[in-house]
Design brief:
It is built from seven helices and eight strands. It starts with 7 loop residues before the first strand and ends with a helix. Strand 5, helix 3 and strand 6 form a beta-alpha-beta unit. The strands form two sheets. Strands 4-3-5-6-7-8 form a six-stranded parallel beta sheet, sandwiched between helices. The chain has a two-stranded antiparallel ribbon with strand order 1-2. The chain is globular and about 50 Å long. 36% of the residues are buried.
């Protein structure tokens, strides 16, 4: 890509012509605790986000603990510096483009920590299955309450790591503008059971497409002010 001519999104003007709009965002997409950036889930969502957000790029990466022997992830706080460096490198590669942090589960939590850092110029955060409940069952809302930039949540209604009523209570306390899209019947990875799909006369693809369009609408509103 020729970085001397940044990609722009265009919108129709009142006279029917086309006018330049906000520079296309660059998305930095972090994986969850158990599967790397090369997993089928990550690759599918990477492609959906790139298309729906008209992103100049969707950057994925693996946290260091994923290399070598499979082992449990460290505490989220220990991944912040590595994640932050990815953000800085990407911002340097795509100057002028709004930076959007997206993440699955743990990756979204670390992304929110990175977005709260003053030296990272992040425009918005997308949380796909935010793990609001810790292993001990306690609500981990401190990171979300520190955010000041637009934050979008996509949650499965059957996600045990993020009961919707607890997320709703947290959202009401947040300083940051925020929105929520619920995937009805979805689990922590948004997978919907066959019986639920049959009862709702819908498909997994349709549910995920609706979610990604909700993300795109939120990001568009956030970037255009």
């Amino acid at each position: 890509m020729d970085l001397s001519r940044p990609a722009k999104r265009h919108r129709r003007s009142k006279d029917g012509g086309s006018e330049a709009s906000t520079l296309s965002p660059v998305v930095i997409f972090a994986h969850g605790a158990g599967a790397p950036s090369s997993s089928d889930w990550m690759l599918r969502w990477k492609n959906m986000l790139k298309e729906a957000l008209q992103a100049v790029d969707v950057v994925t990466f693996d946290y260091p603990y994923m290399s070598g022997k499979k082992r449990a992830p460290p505490k989220a706080e220990k991944l912040v510096e590595f994640h932050s460096n990815i953000v800085k490198e990407t911002a340097t590669k795509y100057p002028g483009h709004p930076v959007v942090l997206a993440g699955k589960s743990m990756g979204s939590r670390v992304g929110c920590m990175v977005a709260s850092m003053e030296d990272n110029n992040v425009s918005a955060v997308v949380c796909l299955g935010y793990p609001l409940k810790g292993m001990n069952g306690a609500v981990r809302d401190e990171t979300l309450l520190q955010l000041t930039i637009p934050t979008m949540f996509v949650q499965g209604s059957k996600d045990g790591l993020c009961p919707l009523e607890k997320l709703e209570a947290t959202r009401k306390k947040m300083k940051a503008p925020n929105d929520l899209h619920v995937i009805d019947g979805g689990d922590h990875s948004f997978k919907i059971g066959k019986k639920h799909l049959q009862a709702s006369n819908s498909s997994q693809d349709e549910a995920e497409e609706a979610a990604v369009q909700a993300i795109a609408a939120f990001i568009s509103r956030s970037l255009e002010g």
